[in-house]
Design goal:
Its main location: membrane. By secondary structure, the chain is mainly alpha-helical. The chain is built from 14 helices and no strands.
Amino acid sequence: MKFDSFFLKRNTFLLLLSSSASFFGTNMQFIAISWFILEKTDNPLYISLLVSVGMIPGLLMSPIAGAVVDRSNKKVLAVKMDFIRAILVLILVIICLIDLPEKLFITLTLVNSLLITLCGNFYFPSISGILKEIFDQHELMRLISINSSLSQIFSALGAAFAGVLLAFFHVSTVLLIDALTFIISGVCLLFLNYSPKIKNNNGKINFSIFEDVLQGLKYSLKDTYITFLFLVGLIPSATIYIINSTLSVYTKEHLNMGSFAYGILDSSYAIGAIVVGITLAFIKKTFNQFTTIFVGYTILIVGFLVIGLSKFLILSALGFAFIGFSLMLINPNRRSLLLSYIKEEYVGRVSSLNWMFYSITGPILGILSTLLLKSTSSNLIFIILGALSLISLIALMINVKQHNQKNNVKLGA
């Protein structure tokens, strides 16, 4: 079989290599610094602080970051963020090598992690903008599909590689490799063939950043199609948080099995997602993207119901594989439709709002599912999710029909 030339194109190859290096390094860093904090302080509370300090300020900064991205050369900004993250990781190496008092060590580490997260808030919308400006809709869908699969693969590899290195080397060695991954990512972006479509206004329009943020909010909320695409991804984006919150209880209490079964179920989801993502990326035929999302939702419903009704490991594993399969049909197509639809001058702000929406709703729904475990069985939660997904599918079909009639266009073809 001849290798698809799309993936040998300069921009495609460089973006995938950059993204893979970034995901690999990000997960290496989290595993390494989390383990070192626990080893140095013997206090798991600091791990929770590490997660929180990266998430909460990032959510607050995300709308502003999107506005800055829309004012900037996205390639230059993404490259700067990669190199700044590399420098911050090198500073983290120094922090870990110096024998600091515990409180000072924790403070410096948390501040460093916060700054790295904030760089990510500028980096990811910049990448979305680059994708929007370089690729057409079909290429965009294929690239997002393969990138989603590679993010799963290299995130897992980064975490595993960090774990192996930590068994033999000091954490500073892991962090040095991590810094190198950000440098590789930045260098790849430097060689992109990219010319920004949105030019700098040279001071002719003196909107403040906060006015830009408000404009982005108004643009997103007033456009019912954008709001609709946000809502389409609500259950799929929350699914991973719900699985993480309930899988251990489901394995132990519903299937009456242990850690081995837990690992099989967890890997079944990942395998389903990776296989479908790579398969879609290599399919050259153009499919109607809404039809693909409909199919994805149908498979998602089947997956939830299989998990909820099954008492057998094999069937449950198949259900989780279906979920991974379905999410790779829904999420890349939904994101491709969104990026293709929004105007270039708003891509940073809408991408940031998109990320913020799911970063808030996903964990909240995950927490709610954990609270439900106190009053109901874990398998019933998956049956409820199947019912909610069915309602979402019906609403999706109605909204797509109404939108197509209103605009008299065929979307997603």
